[in-house]
Amino acid sequence: MTGETGSGKSTQIAQYLANDYQKIVVTQPRRIGAVSLANRVAEEMGVCLGREVGYAVRFTNKTSKYTRLKFVTDGILLREILNNKELRNYDVIILDEAHERSLCTDILFAILRKITKYRSHFKLLITSATLNSMKFSDFFFKCPVFNIPGRTFPVEIFYSKRDYNFYIDKAIHTVLFIHKKESPLEHVLIFLTGQKEIEDACEIFGKCYDKMLIDGEKLSDVVILSAYSNLPPQHLIQIFSPTPPGCRKVIFCTNLCETSLTIDDICHVVDPGFVKQLRFNDKNGIDALLIVNVSQAAAEQRAGRAGRTKSGKCYRLFREHTFNTEMDQETEPEIKRINMCATVLFLKNIKFNNILSFSFLDRPSDYQLVRALTKLRLIGALTCDGDLTSIGKKIIKFPLEPIWGKFLLTCQKYGCISEGLTITAMTSVENIYTNSNEDEEENLEHSYFSKYGDLLTSLNIWEEFSDSSNFIEFCSRKKLNPRIMKQVKLIREQLQDVVKHELPIVKIANNKVDAVRKSIARTFYFNSVQKRFKQNEQDARYRAIDSKIKENLFIHNRSCMYKTEHQWLVFTRITYTNRPFIHGITSVNFDWIKDLLPLINRIDINRLTKGSLNRLQKDLYLRKKKKKIEMYRILVENTQENNVYKKYPCKNKERSKKNMSKLAKSVTNQVSLKDVNSARERYLVRMKILQESK
Question: How confident is the model at residue 49 (pLDDT cuts 50, 70, 90)?
Answer without folding.
Answer: very high
